[in-house]
Amino acid sequence: MNQLNRRNFLKTAGISTTTIPFLGNLEAFAAPGKAINKQRMVIFFSPNGVVPEAFWPQEEGENFQLKEILAPLEPFKNQTIVLNGVCDKVRGDGDNHMRGIGCLLTGIELFPGNVQGGSHTPAGWASGLSIDQEIKNYLQKNEATRTRFGSLELGVLVPDRADTWTRMSYSSSNKPISPINDPYQLFAKLYGQAKDKEILGSVLDPVIADLKRISSQLGKEDRKIIEEHTGFVRDMEKELRNLKLSNNHAMPKLEPGIREDNENLPKISRMQLDLLHNSLQADFNRISTFQFTNSVGMAKMKWLGIEEGHHQLSHEPDTNKVAVEKLIKINKWFCEEIAYFAKKLKNTPEPNGQGNMLDNTLLVWTNELGKGNSHTLDNIPFVMVGGNLGWKNGKSHKFTRTSHNRLLIAMAHGFGHNIASFGNVEYCKDGPLVLS
After folding, report:
1. Alpha-carbon span 290 to 156, nearest angstrom
2. Whole-model pTM?
3. For residue 46, what are the contacts with CB-CB under 8 A and spacing of at least 6?
């Protein structure tokens, strides 16, 4: 059924716009080439660069070995892509820490401003939106991919102050998005909106009526899917009565009284990751950013036996082997958190689909610097796990000073959003990065 006939049929049948998302997976109504399984993306940020010799695989291609920092991803190696040689070429105002995080997802210069950092010129906010929001906006325009929130921006001990070092996601030029740091605030956003539940409840009966009316006009296979959707709507009604999600998973319970301080960073991280997992499973959002502290992050990883601040250690010379070993531990811990989340997704069957959630969720781990003590914007870490973007997984790539804008374009293309450029067009001339 082509798009024009689809619209005419729905109009003639008197189907409400509220019901349309439930019809997206029907063969009769599917847009050409539309996948049944969902596509999701979570972009993780950790600061202050990495230790290259303990991070980048020596090999290129499918037969590569994960170095110590990336070792926690070994169980997911066949779903992992490591990109070496991807560089942030955006220049202009701000120091490398500021441009490192502010241009990371926007691919465009910072505005001039009055925030002074390092020995460079002061700067303000990024002059364009970030790729997570670009893709979120694209998905939200389509009834079949629209979700309750579209995206969630989460943080773990991101400072309250709003400046260029603390924001990675932008809704548009000069409009940074503050990440949600507090797990209890995130819980309230996901589950505590009684008014939202009332609004949802008011539309369920018309949805059921629409589904029943259209069922008699469809073939056997589509009728079966309609019956499944009807059951899903009834489960939603049950959720409203019990103030919990459907039987797919229980509403999470948070340990009370966890303060937002350095000592609780590991616990807050797991609370946020668990809530994000639940949100993706419930299809509240399909895009997310997850920010560990901030550019120039000062966390003290005392649970690893490290008393110095992360940023302080990142400035130590390579000859300080003790500092290097501590930095390896710190970055490996970040990787362990991402591996924890990947395992949760892999152990969760894809709701109303095939395979598991990791198969359809791209996890991207990145950083504002390639190396802390040199403040280089070359070889920015990009490690990706899982996903359903048509890329060849289980590979180590080595590029030659390739603009990271090309990767941002490739991310959009993976979601079917075929933009020609993103951010500064000067760095997009060679098109999307090919990951085959």
Report:
1. 8
2. 0.82
3. 292, 293, 297, 331, 334, 365, 367
The C-alpha atoms of residue 19 and residue 120 are separated, in whole angstroms, by 54
CA-CA-CA-CA dihedral for 329, 364, 433, 393, to nearest 10: 90
Pair 169, 153: CB distance under 8 Å: yes
Q: Report d(CA 9, CA 214) in Å as an integer.
A: 10
Of 149, 120, 73, 100, the C-alpha closest to 386 is 73
| Orientation angle between helical segments 321-346 and 265-281, nearest 10 degrees | 30
What are 427-436's pLDDT values in tens digits?
999 999 999 8
How do residues 375-432 score in pLDDT, each as one tens digit? 999 999 999 999 989 999 999 999 999 999 999 999 999 999 999 999 999 999 999 9
The residues near 109 (Cβ < 8 Å, ≥ 6 apart) are 90, 91, 92, 93, 99, 103, 126, 127, 424
CA–CA dist 405, 309 (Å, integer): 31
Q: How far apart are CA 257 and CA 273, in angstroms?
A: 18
In the three-class reduction of DSSP (H, G, I as helix; E, B as strand; rest coil), residue 48 is classed as coil
Residue matched to tokens 């010799």: 53
CB atoms within 10 A of CB 391: 17
